[in-house]
């Protein structure tokens, strides 16, 4: 046995980061997978700070073993927890998990039943929920005073967002935002996927903006595939919209802009309601003919504006299938990175190369989500990329 293997035999049980990816879990028979994870946890000593587990290969009848692993983690100092599930049956979080002092939590296709005495994750800095059902009673409060980034997509039951202190909010259609009972005063960045023809989605955006009086940056992303035509309607005729102001908004960006009436009405509404708006960037979808693009630009320049310093940038958004394929490939690679052993300089150089070579559209924001899942102390790829996108 080599010296290296002897040393490694004593080192690996103390590694603070454990990651069980989809590729690893799906390559093992179910009982073998459970035995391997049980062995690793039982032989581990020292704190486990980061734990990533793809639970898609575990049938609902074996979800109890996940709860056993979570109980073990709760006693071993876990701070960063990710449970990724792509199966139809969601995983129900055990009650003891709400007592863990997490700093980062990512859940996909799970059910969260908040205890009646639950008062939130006081140390949580990053929260990402995808296809999560939140159940609670009237006494539950989701208090997260140290939250820096909140992302939720296609969630239900998020009606108790009390005392949230977050700088970044990202959400998507299918998410309940009908009732936000408090102001999210520390939030300054909002990003959302949107269909301007869906009044509920437009109303959700406006509710979020009403609850985030200090938001400075707003990015709206059309989905890549639009099915059917858009109704010729005005969602901004009601009295409720007329009195609304966005007194801190400085940047507005919309990708895959088509210049259809609901989009133009939304932009006009924002321009006349944001007295400090400095820059509006509208990336016109490549499907729009050049003559139509010129008409869109002319109409935009004639909109009334509350900000005397506003700069409106309207430009054609070029995108090719090769670019889409490259972004998708890059995302796939990043999602498979092992944060313990990855070559960080290679990731940074690759990211710089992609950003310098291609225009960004809604695919870029999917890329941000992938980058957000990569957590390395002292590095924030997603925030860096957001800054780069604003410069495009």
From TrEMBL:
<dbReference type="InterPro" id="IPR050232">
    <property type="entry name" value="FBL13/AtMIF1-like"/>
</dbReference>
<protein>
    <recommendedName>
        <fullName>FBD domain-containing protein</fullName>
    </recommendedName>
</protein>
<dbReference type="InterPro" id="IPR006566">
    <property type="entry name" value="FBD"/>
</dbReference>
<feature type="domain" description="FBD">
    <location>
        <begin position="246"/>
        <end position="315"/>
    </location>
</feature>
